Each structure stands twice: as structure tokens, then as C-alpha cells.
Amino acid sequence: MLLPHSLTRAPFLLRWRNAPDTEPHAAPPRSPLALAGWVALWIAGPANWPLWKAFAGLPDVTGTRGLLFGIAFGLMIAAAMAALLSLLAWRSTFKPALTVVLLTAAVSAHFMGSYGIVIDPTMILNVLGTDVRETRDLLSLRLLESLLLLAALPLWWLWRQPVDYQRWPARAIRNLSGFVGALVVLAAMTLLCFQDLSGTMRNHKELRYLVNPLNGFYSVGRVAYAKQAKPAGPPLPIGLDARPLAPLAGQRTPLLLLVVGETARADHFALNGYPRDTDPELRALDVLSFRNVTSCGTNTAASLPCMVSHLGRTAHEARSHNYENLLDLLQHAGLAVLWIENQAGCKEVCDRVPHTRPEQPAPGATPPDARLCPNGECLDEAMLHGLDARLAALPATQRARGVVLVIHQMGSHGPAYSQRSPADLKRFTPECTSTVLQQCDHQRLVNAYDNSIAYTDHVLAQSVRWLRQQTASYDPAMLYLSDHGESLGENNLYLHGLPYAIAPREQKHVPMIAWLPPQRLQADRLDLGCLRGRLDTALSHDNLFHTVLGLARVQAGEYQPALDALAPCRAAS
Ligand SMILES: [Zn+2]
User: Fold this and answer.
1) What is the Å distance from ligand 1's center to 455 Cα?
2) For residues 263 and 510, is the Cβ–Cβ distance under 8 A?
């Protein structure tokens, strides 16, 4: 943690300043409530600059009335902060609390201001689920500036202030009156501008997630509560009746490669009408690109469990129990399942099935070339390295019933887009290489992102080439679906993870691409013309569970043909 040097010394300084014998000219000790008031104003003002920037841009907040509403809104935030700090104004808690509050506010302001994200419960879950590599991508000089200016500067001043805490009964009474006084100000301001407040909050829901750092504290509280409320014990089983369908005439063993994409937006694929040539290799392969697919969430932690759930988005969000998922069901059916992970983790969905990482080769195989895994991070192609050995290492009896391999991509994960494609495959230059996206020239940013999409095109085409080699023993198929999209500066928004209800389409419109060779189409009685006619059908992550069961030829009580994206084109056998 970056703390100014004065901070580590501060307790000694404080004692020294408080001792009148050694420092006769020391400033008179201050009331903690006065300091709480100053900090509350600092937080409501400068530390909330992303909120005020968004506020100033609202079309319906203008003129003197808008200005007065802004001032009242600012005072409401300051009053709420002051109320909170009043309760903590004790000798042992006050300055540590101010430190935590100011550091949190400085860090949140940086991320909200630089990436257009908001701090809500799902963002807290993302932060908890992140790893060193993701964190490293997000550290920047701008974050240090924000910490120095918004936190270290006021903290340097605060820790030097002598404070008169008084004895405890008096302190308790004063803290309580400070708390009540702040609440009175909050209530008065709310009443004064109630009309503007309710209208603005209704029309611009995102504002409430920008109130810094109360949004962060609220979200941490929600996450902690939700964790507590989550049912204990293992997830309830599903698919205990699941079994492979009896093979039809001419069918070989099904082999499905499911590619879970990352941060790919549908509208950046030429297959879906993007004017740039981002997917030349896939287009040469005669794939089916479903152009109208919506994600379940706007971040990995929300989308991934939902994608493999049998419940669908609405029931998944409202669930009172955790359930096993698609991968467990395939395993119950007796199929061989393997998850290969190239990201920060599978968010617990692969916990009960065999899983590995590209750096860990199958027994007897070699690890991927160092060029595929530079700086301790693997390019997605590394997941295809040694797939023959991985397939051969799966239990033979399960392999004979069917194989589902899942590869979880690094894909287009930001903000370091330029690191998501190797130097020799960059089609669009120059690239933005900064992770502070707002500082990037827009075209360079899009170039870096499009290179990551073009690299995904290459990885998917490579995976198809591998699948083609398996046709003697298997009926292969590839299904690619991204977990969510990405904002690339539209409306000043970057990255992803906005609350679903207010997230723009760029964060929810995802690519879904299937490769089904003629052999597979014939074996599964699938009509290609019918499938081509369905490419604009509205689909969502809700369809994945059932579509995969269809492609894996697995029968289970949870399977709903109506949600299988390919079922309408499958002839009854
Ligand atoms: Zn993701």
C-alpha cells in the first residue's frame, strides 16, 4: 500500500504536538467533528469528480436550478459522509477510518473516472475474483496521481492535526449529536430538492453507482450479505438421469469443442457486418455466425455461471439454491469433459470436472513454446497445444460416449488489449499500448481491440483445423460464445461490468459462432439451409445449455428443445 512517509511517523508527531510542555506554540487541538466535516466536504467535492463530470453532462440538469440542485446533492453526500464519520470519531478509530475512507475514495475515483465504470456489487465480486495479472494491467501512473492528490495530500494534513477527543461520555454525546445534525442536513437537502432528485435518479440510474465512496461501502455490504445469505453446502445435483442418446445410423462419437470467449463484442466481427476484415480465417471456413445474441451478464463472474446454468438468466438470478451445471450434467451422462483455463479462473463452474491450464501439459506431452507464453501469461493458441495428448489422456470408456472440451479464452480482455495478440499477427496498426484508455487515441484503441478479435479468429480457425483431423473417430463440432461485450469509449464508457439494466448494447451483444462440417450436419440430421435462415433469430446465453446438450447428444430431464438453438433445424429421426 502506498502511504506517504509522514503517515508512518504520524502517531509520534501527534503525541509530540499534543504535549504542551515540549511545544508551547502548537496549534490548539481541533474537534474531531470539525475534521470529519472537512473530510466529508473534500470527499463530496474533489474526490467525486467522476460523479460531477457525469452530472454536468446531463441534458436535463441546466441553468441556475441545475446548479442549486448540484450544490444540494453535494451537501447530501457530504452530510451522509459526516454522519458516518461522526460515529467513528473516537481516539482509536478516527484517523484510521479517515485513512480508509480517503484511500478508497481515491482508488474508486481513478477507476470510475478513467474507465467509465461504476462501483456496484458485481464490480466488487470482480475485484475479489481478480488475479495478479489482471491487477498488474490496471496499475498505472494515473492511479498513483489520484492516490497522491485525493488521499495522501489531505491525509498528510489530517495526521498532523492535534485532536481533542475528550473523555468518553462527553465524546459519545458529541458524536451522537454530530450524527443527528448531519442526518438533519441530509433530510433538509433531500426535501429541498426532492423533485429534481427523484427525477434525475429515475432517468439516470447510473448516478447512484457513482457516489464515491459510499457506493463502494454499500456494494461491499451487499456482497457480504449475499455471501451470508447464500445456501451452505454443496450445489444441488442436476441431470442425475442424463445419458447419451443411442447413436443413429452413421454417427460417430460426438466431439464438441466449446470455446468460451472473453470480452468479444459481436459488432466487431466482419461476419456480423463489421466493415473491417477482423475474421478472414473463419469466413473461409463456412461457419454459422448467430448475429443477434445477448449475454447473461456484463462481466465474467456474472456471465460464466449463468451460461452453464440450466435455469436461464431470470431464474438463475432469483435462485435460492446453487445447482450443478452443464459440465456436471455431461459428466453424469458419462461423457469425457475437460476444461482448459487461460484466464483468472472458471468462477467455480469447472470445480467438479477435470480442469487444467495451458502451461500444464498432458502426461508425456511437452509444455507450449515459450513464445506462446511470454511473461508468465499464455496467448490463447497455447490452449490448443498438445490437444491430441489431452484427448488421449481422457478415460477411454467416457471418451467412447462423447467428448466435450472447453477452452476459456483470455480473448479481448482489457485494458491491455495490445497484449492479447502476438506481434506477428497484428493486422491493424498503430495500436494503443496504454492501459489508461481515455488517454488513447480512439482509432489506436480500436486497432488494439480489433487485433484481439482477429487473433481470436485465428485461434478459432486453428481449433477447427485440429477438429478436422479427428473426423475418422469422431463427429466434431465447434461452438464459440463470448461471455460479454465491451465498451470502447462510446458515451465515454470503457471496459465492461455496468449493471445489466443500464449497460449499453456494446457490453451485452456477443458473438456466437458454430462450425459444423458436412459430416456432422449429416450425422445429426441438421439442415444447413434452415440453420442459415436462423442466423438473425434473437438468442441469448439461456440457449447455450440446451444447444450444447443437443450437440453432445445427451438426453436429460433439464433439456428443453425449445431453447436448443439448432433443434428447429434437426430432422426427427
Ligand atoms: Zn469476461
Assistant:
1) 17
2) no
